[in-house]
Design a protein that fits this description.
heterodimer, A: mainly alpha, ABC transporter involved in vitamin B12 uptake, BtuC, 12 helices, 2 strands, 73% helix, B: 359 residues, mainly alpha, two-stranded antiparallel ribbon, two-stranded antiparallel sheet, 14 helices, 4 strands, globular
Amino acid sequence: MNTRVLTWLVAVPAVVIGLGLLFQLLSLVEPSLYFTWAYYLEVLIGGTLQGVMYSLVALGFVLIFKASSVFNFAQGSMVLFAALTMVGMIEWGLHWTLAFLITAGVMVVLALVIERVVLRPLVNQPHIILFMATIGIFYFLDGLGQTLWGSDVKQLDIGIPRTPIFILESVFEGGILVNQFDIVAAAIGGILVLVLAIFFQKTRIGRALRAVADDHQAALSVGIPLKTIWAIVWSVAGFVALVTGVIWGSKLGVQFTLALIALKALPVLILGGLTSIPGAIVGGLIIGAGEQVAEVFLSTFIGSAIQDWFAYVLAMLFLLVRPQGLFGEKIIERV
Amino acid sequence: MLYREAGQFKSDYVSDQAIFPILQDRIGVILIFLFALLVVPFIASNYMLSSILVPFLVFSIAAIGLNILTGYCGQVSLGTGGFMACGAFFTFKLTTAMPELNILLVFLLAGFGTALVGIAFGLPSLRIKGFYLAIATLAAQFFLIWMFTQNPWWTNHSAAGVITAPPRALFGDFYITGIRATPLNKYIFLLCFTALLALVAKNLVRSALGRAWMAIRDMDIAAEIIGIRPLAAKLSAFAVSSFFIGISGAVWAFMYTASVEALAFEVTRSFQVLFMIIIGGLGSILGSFLGAAFIVLLPIMLSNLPAMVGLRLPVDLVAHLEFMIFGALIVFFLIVEPHGLARLWQIGKEKLRRWPFPY
């Protein structure tokens, strides 16, 4: 076990307990603030499970950014598009597994089209231009999805249980309330990450992907076809978008606001580091837990609805200390 | 044949460094301004004035502001909407607290206030760059909008959260905000104001300060080595940019929509202005105008086009198609001309100079 993991193992409980003590202190000063350790843990766990969802969106960003240095703003609208397509298929009467497979196919086709029509003509353009192009894709997909499938809020139900359950009843009085749906979602997210990790570490394509991520020119010179790799990466990102869309869609309903969760993934990204898959996951958990805890325990002092901006400010303050994010590669600049 | 600078010799530095060194350009710009000032008011309908020309001018100011920051200084910002909201709410607070203060002065003061906010949110730019900075400016966007919606103090404790702009006159009976302001008054004022601001911006980017910004944009480390202080350059870019954006937010709320509400300045507004400068041309004042015109006109064109050719489409379908066409056009533009409309205009000028013998 290396020192880094050890640091995390010490730091995370320390921060959690420290914040808990801080809030307990605050609740003594300000009686209107309700604080018990069970409640604090409940909020924390709820937030962390919510954070898994952010991680999933962030994962799609990181995959593309690592392989092609494109900051894919359209990830959010890919999520919406995938969810809309799948719901549309289900409405046609298909079983959801079949709909899922067909939608996965659609996302692959979409990835190929994006690669061919948008990315290839823009090779060697500055990053900001590519970023803008993905915003163009964002608008296009938003319009396309809603033109094809309509803009009503749709229900997506694939049979994930929703009843809340109590855990740790022996430790705390009354136990801790956890939503079963969130646990299943987190499990799906975990499986997805595991599959991706195996894909990246063990397969031939995965090795090629990592080579491209490491150094485009070196990868080209050992005979890795860059264009194919890009298409694969966008397909994988499309698949991740589909899984995200299914989970978010069955939680919140499939609607236009799904596309805007992409914005929530941005602070996750910079917190974790733009180039790191573990960073995306840990960043998502931190942002999810942090904003829940802040919303519940700080809103008495600052005002409600701080969820809107808390993640961004947290990420920004963090960047001031560590500009490359938690797990990002150290930024080295040369003239 | 007409557009040729042959024979126009420059014999001193002043004429060499003029904004429009070519005589035809000078005449052209003056003619366009006079046309807009003297002819347009007589031929344009009220609809044309209040829902095309006024938003065009308002967006032009915002685009100039963002272009200074992003196009000239290279700091990508997604906080434009937040800064526009600052300008709008500062103006509202100032003009309700001191009704006797001239509205023009209030606009400028609100601009200065926004500049201070811009400096505060520009501080991270000293540590973080590129995409990281773009996301950090989103913090400004969301935080500012949250502040204006959460605190009833900003809306003078109005119950609805939406407030109409109070009537204010520039001088005498020349009302430019509120119910007594005619679209014509608004247009005339905005035209002169925008022209003035554009002139200020153009001169700023030609100055030592502007050159410092461009050096930072091209490579900040190299700029630092040749003696440009990144702190001063970046923060001044944030300040000047926020000043313009704040003013545009103020005139947006007071002269275009005539109501002050934070919802008008959501993050989509930031993207809209960013599109303007990308499509118009990064690092070009002319491009800011062209981009603003493009983005303002495009939705109007798109929603009127099907009706013109006799097609009757449902409203929501038109809205979605608009999104699609908008997105496709952005991608198309970036592929065909990443340097924007301003570059197309330059190419056109080159062609014009050689016309009719292009060899």
